[in-house]
């Protein structure tokens, strides 16, 4: 087990008479190499939750373990944890500051105290992993397009060669093309053995790629399971401001009309096969 | 740290003080500062404290909220108190090593502390009870006469109100960038002064970039809403003096007069420790 | 009546290298001709950098054409003097909700436009009340903008435009930074304004689902206008859309794929309801 959260709660004003909890009694664990998605609408506590995982926030109560060590324990040194757990915030391109792309990506490795050659080697590996074009390494990060900037920013975190990559709304504000780029990149990273945790409110982002989905609502963990399990609860999901991929609605409608289709289908390829089977006679 | 500065943060409440014309409150800030330096001795300060206490009570702003504004200048207060405490010559009360505490030292240091605290609290009342826009409106009108000398009063006022609106947004932004860089292993807490200053670069550059981007967005948004300078602009809530404003004007002048009279009186008839 | 008439519009800007020397010109809008009827809801689609925003900013005079003409309500936009007078008729909503709110309270912000126009003071409060109610934001009149959600901020921005009583709303990716519920909230408001107030809406977006509800969809690619038709017409051209880095709505794509496999489905299916009906009609 890579992460284990035990009965974690968090409040921004824990001393208030009736404290409001951003996260309330949440427990779950994450296996190494998993592709996990955390979904919930704005204010559901999902962004707070992921900050526990690399120690940027400390839960008000409860324990968090990373590779068996309690990171919520007193005196725990976060520097090593932050190297092993890469956290990419929303609109990560806002963190770019160096004069060239390569230098910016070197910032993380530099903070780790690596020598110049190793810094560069890691930066180049990271930039390759996000498929950033080699002839643009010396460009200013501020001259890039939105999608390129975002990939450089993700490379900046990857360059620390973390065991786990957590991305908060990595596709926000991108056009469909940029969105697909980032998502398929996440899948490739998982293929290379990194744990990927994706935080999103976009169902289409998570339904196809994630192996497991956590649904957060008002600070509480509502569902935890495989996508096909979670999207069974379409009505409950809609009740908390979420939705399901359109294929789910389509199948439900067909089932209602008496066709023998599975209850939950998450991508168009699968739907295509099923529909052809039934209707191509 | 930055979050604690109450200066420039409006506290929403419905009170007489909130409803006063911003020009009245602007003048109050000036007069109050003058009074703190015009007054001498404990009696004058007692009057200043009472006057401010009444105003704060009327304003319905919780005292806790106003005191929070002092947190950011605690060091300044402590430092000036210490300097005055140890460096004032006079009748020695306590002596240890090279330090000595004098009767005058205690007196001056405590008056100093009271003065700074009152000054900050007094001016906080203005910003806490006046929306930033009212405040800039007030400034714009109060200094409107400078237009004759080609001072761009409207433009400056507009810039101020925009700056005030963006302070909370930029503070939020600082926190976000800080966390993002910490996630890349940045260390903003440890190390010497130079190392700390260097660590600020990855924080400041993104902040400036974002501020410029916001400024250019905002400029377009303002243009899209027909903004073309101050000429021909009307106001939703134009400033108008009411009866309460006249009364407030009179009261604050009466207060300043009382302070000055008190000072003259005390100089003519000195009383020990007053 | 055509409320917007754009004829052979070209917009070029110079690019500069690090030393500040001109390194060439970029043609952001390339010979675009477009007419928008009063009361229409038009969606402009295109990937980032396709020139869709640049095009829209000519309608309210934020950008000036290099060549060609732009007419708004029968008046030439570039020749308007002073230029801000055209902006009364064409309000514009931008992407970032935080960067377009000027006032310290919702009320003050909504009044900003009419204040600039010099609307008499007696009339200002009424305009604010009316605009807030149309945008469904009356309950937040005295709130601070910072306390609002993204979707609410965008509705304040819309109210700020409505207070100027414009005939056209130009919306430059107003939902790109919002979550799904915020996006729904903003679109609902805009559709209501279009239906009930007859305001012409030009919605720039890269969400196909948002374009599906428009009267007309325009697709831009590399500065050129390449498609112009009803959502059904445009979305049936799946291959062409893919070629300009756009995706069609998931159900349109599924229907298209099924059709390729030989199912006899109509063109341009837009949502799951239509697809379910079409499939059931097969048997």
Q: What features would you describe in this structure?
A:
The complex is a heterotrimer of chains A (281), B (274) and C (283). With 281 residues, chain A is of the alpha/beta class. Chain A has helices at residues 46-53, 78-84, 101-111, 116-129, 146-158, 176-191, 203-209, 227-230, 234-239, 246-256, 268-279; strands at residues 3-11, 21-30, 35-39, 61-66, 69-70, 85-88, 164-168, 195-200, 212-217, 220-225. Chain A folds into 3 domains: 1-76 and 163-241, P-loop containing nucleotide triphosphate hydrolases (Rossmann fold); 95-162; 245-281, no CATH class. Helices cover 39% and strands 21% of the residues of chain A. In chain A, strand 9 (212-217) and strand 10 form a beta hairpin. The longest helix of chain A is centred in the middle third of the chain and has 16 residues, at 176-191. Chain B has 2 domains: 1-130 and 241-274, no CATH class; 135-236, no CATH class. Chain B has helices at 16-19, 22-38, 41-59, 63-68, 74-87, 103-129, 132-142, 153-183, 193-199, 201-224, 243-268, and strands spanning 92-96, 99-102. In chain B, helix 2 runs antiparallel to helix 6 and helix 3 packs antiparallel against helix 11 (243-268). The longest helix of chain B has 31 residues, at 153-183. Chain B is flat, with a radius of gyration of 23 Å. The relative contact order of chain B is 0.15. Residues 1-7 of chain B have low confidence and may be disordered. By secondary structure, chain C is α/β, with parallel strands linked by helices. In chain C, strand 9 and strand 10 form a beta hairpin. In chain C, helix 2 packs across helix 3 (121-134), helix 2 packs parallel to helix 4 (150-162) and helix 3 crosses helix 4. The mean pLDDT of chain C is 92. Chain B binds chain C through residues 10, 12, 131-133, 161-162, 164-165, 168-169, 213-214, 217-218, 220-228, 232-238, and chain C through 60, 62, 82, 84-85, 87-88, 91-92, 94, 96, 98-105, 107-108, 111-121, 124-125, 128, 144-146, 157, 160-161, 164.
Features:
heterotrimer, A: 281 residues, alpha/beta, Rossmann fold, 6-stranded mixed β-sheet, 4-stranded antiparallel β-sheet, 11 helices, 10 strands, globular, B: 274 residues, mainly alpha, two-stranded antiparallel ribbon, flat, disordered N terminus
């Amino acid at each position: 087990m890579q992460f284990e959260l035990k009965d974690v709660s968090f409040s921004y004003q824990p001393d208030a008479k009736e404290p409001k909890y951003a996260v309330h009694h949440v427990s779950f664990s994450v296996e190494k190499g998993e592709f996990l998605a955390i979904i919930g609408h704005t204010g559901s506590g999902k962004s707070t939750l992921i900050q526990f995982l690399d120690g940027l926030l400390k839960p008000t109560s409860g324990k968090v373990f990373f590779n068996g060590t309690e990171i919520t324990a007193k005196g725990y040194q976060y520097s090593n944890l932050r190297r092993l757990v890469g956290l990419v915030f929303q609109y990560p391109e806002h963190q770019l500051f160096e004069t060239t792309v390569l230098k910016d990506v070197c910032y993380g490795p530099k903070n780790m105290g690596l020598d110049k050659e190793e810094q560069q080697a890691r930066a180049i590996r990271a930039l390759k992993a996000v498929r950033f074009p080699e002839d643009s390494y010396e460009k200013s990060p501020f001259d890039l397009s939105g999608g390129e900037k975002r990939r450089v920013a993700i490379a900046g975190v990857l360059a620390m060669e973390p065991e786990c990559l957590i991305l908060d709304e990595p596709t926000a504000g991108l056009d469909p093309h940029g969105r697909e780029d980032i998502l398929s990149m996440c899948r490739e990273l998982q293929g290379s053995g990194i744990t990927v945790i994706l935080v999103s409110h976009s169902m289409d982002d998570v339904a196809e790629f994630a192996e497991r989905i956590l649904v957060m609502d008002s600070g509480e963990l509502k569902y935890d399971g495989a996508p096909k399990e979670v999207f069974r609860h379409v009505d409950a999901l809609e009740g908390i401001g979420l939705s399901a991929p359109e294929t789910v609605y389509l199948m439900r409608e067909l089932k209602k009309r008496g066709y023998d289709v599975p209850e939950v289908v998450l991508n168009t390829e699968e739907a295509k096969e099923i529909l052809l089977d039934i209707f191509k006679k | 740290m930055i979050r604690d500065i109450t200066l420039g943060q409006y506290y929403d409440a419905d009170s007489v003080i909130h409803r006063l014309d911003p020009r009245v409150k602007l003048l109050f800030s000036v007069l109050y500062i003058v009074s703190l330096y015009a007054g001498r001795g404990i009696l004058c300060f007692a009057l200043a404290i009472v006057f401010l206490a009444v105003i704060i009570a009327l304003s319905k702003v919780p005292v806790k909220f106003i005191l929070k504004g002092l947190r950011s200048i605690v060091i300044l207060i402590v430092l000036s108190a210490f300097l005055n405490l140890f460096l004032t010559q006079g009748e020695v009360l306590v002596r240890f090593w090279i330090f000595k505490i004098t009767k005058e030292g205690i007196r001056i240091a405590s008056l100093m502390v009271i003065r700074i605290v009152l000054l900050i609290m007094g001016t906080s009342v203005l910003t806490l009870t006046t929306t930033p826009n009212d405040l800039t409106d007030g400034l714009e009108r109060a200094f409107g006469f400078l237009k004759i000398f080609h001072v761009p009063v409207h433009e400056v006022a507009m810039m101020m109100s925009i700056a005030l609106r963006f302070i909370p947004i930029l503070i939020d932004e600082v926190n976000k960038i800080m966390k993002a860089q910490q996630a890349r292993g940045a260390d903003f807490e440890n190390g010497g002064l130079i190392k700390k200053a260097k660590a600020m670069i990855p924080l400041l550059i993104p902040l400036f970039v974002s501020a410029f981007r916001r400024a250019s967005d905002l400029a377009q948004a303002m243009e899209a809403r027909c903004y073309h300078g101050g000429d021909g602009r009307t106001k939703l809530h134009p400033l108008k003096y009411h009866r309460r404003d006249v009364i407030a004007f009179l009261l604050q002048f009466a207060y300043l007069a009382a302070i000055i009279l008190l000072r003259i009186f005390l100089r003519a008839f000195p009383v020990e420790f007053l | 009546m055509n409320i917007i008439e754009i004829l052979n519009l070209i917009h070029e800007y110079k690019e500069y290298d690090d030393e500040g020397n001109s390194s060439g010109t970029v043609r952001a809008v390339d010979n675009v001709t477009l007419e928008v009827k009063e009361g229409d809801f038009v969606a402009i689609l295109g990937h980032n950098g396709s020139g869709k925003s640049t095009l829209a900013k000519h309608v309210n005079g934020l950008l000036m054409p290099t060549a060609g003409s732009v007419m708004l309500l029968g008046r030439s936009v570039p020749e308007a003097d002073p230029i801000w007078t055209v902006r009364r008729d064409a309000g514009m909503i931008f992407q970032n909700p935080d960067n377009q709110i000027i006032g310290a309270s919702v009320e003050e912000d909504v009044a900003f436009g009419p204040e600039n126009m010099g609307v008499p003071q007696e009339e200002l409060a009424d305009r604010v009340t009316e605009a807030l109610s149309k945008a469904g934001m009356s309950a937040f009149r005295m709130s601070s903008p910072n306390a609002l959600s993204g979707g609410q901020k965008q509705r304040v921005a819309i109210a700020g435009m409505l207070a100027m009583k414009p005939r056209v709303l130009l919306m430059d990716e107003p939902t790109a930074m919002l979550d799904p519920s915020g996006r729904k909230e903003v679109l609902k408001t805009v559709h209501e304004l279009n239906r009930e107030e007859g305001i012409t809406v030009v919605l720039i977006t890269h969400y196909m689902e948002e374009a599906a509800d428009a009267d007309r969809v325009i697709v831009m690619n590399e500065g050129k206008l390449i498609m112009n038709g009803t959502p059904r017409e445009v979305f049936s051209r799946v291959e062409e859309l893919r070629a300009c880095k756009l995706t069609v709505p998931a159900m349109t794509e599924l229907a298209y794929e099924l059709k390729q496999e030989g199912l006899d489905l109509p063109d341009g299916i837009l949502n799951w309801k239509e697809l379910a009906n079409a499939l059931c009609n097969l048997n």
